[in-house]
Amino acid sequence: MSNLDHPSVMRVRAWLADASSPAEVIELNETARSAQDAADSIDTELGSIVKSLVFAVAGKPVMALVAGDRQCDTKALAVALGLDGKVKRADADLVREATGFAIGGVPPVAHETKLPIVIDASLARFETVYAAAGHPYCVFATSVAELARITGAEIKEGIGTAG
């Protein structure tokens, strides 16, 4: 069976189609479990990989879409989302509960629950960015503007910091 037929990938593909997105899921020969793995598999710059990071702010799950060569500034994340409270990295159980996907293939779309999402403005350095598509061997290519449209997220400066 092709990874494109995996139920999680099918969910992402259906979601993209329902959103009238031109993005198509790409099956890779190598894993995209980490941003570096994805960049190596696609033969692209690390920064063009979209990391879909789940955090909890005051216990509420949120998502930051951060460039692969950046780290999420959690203080900036809470401010960007207009939320108060302690920011913690979500554990695997919260990630799966909030998104319906396992760590290593969490896409920025097709989540189980509607999450507040913010996009790291540094991703705009790239004409094409690559996001996970529900499986460690699948991604989809898109633009930052299209990513903002299909996620309903705002693009914010200072979310991703070099490091």
What this model shows, in words?
The protein is an alpha/beta fold and 163 residues long. The protein has a single domain (3-153), classed as Alpha-Beta Complex (YbaK protein). Helix content is 26%, strand content 29%. Strands 1, 2, 3, 5, 6, 7, 8 and 9 form an 8-stranded mixed sheet that branches. It starts with 6 loop residues before the first helix and ends with a strand. The relative contact order is 0.24.
In short:
The protein has five helices and ten strands; from the N terminus they run αβαβββαβαβββαββ.
Element layout with pairings:
Elements: H1 7-18, E1 25-27, H2 35-42, E2 49-57, E3 60-67, E4 70-72, H3 74-80, E5 87-89, H4 92-99, E6 117-120, E7 129-135, E8 138-142, H5 144-151, E9 154-156, E10 160-162
Parallel strand pairs: 2-7, 3-6, 6-9
Antiparallel strand pairs: 1-8, 2-3, 2-5, 4-10, 7-8
Name of the level-1 CATH class: Alpha Beta
Order of helices and strands: HEHEEEHEHEEEHEE
Cα shape: globular
Mean pLDDT: 95
Count of spatially separate domains: 1
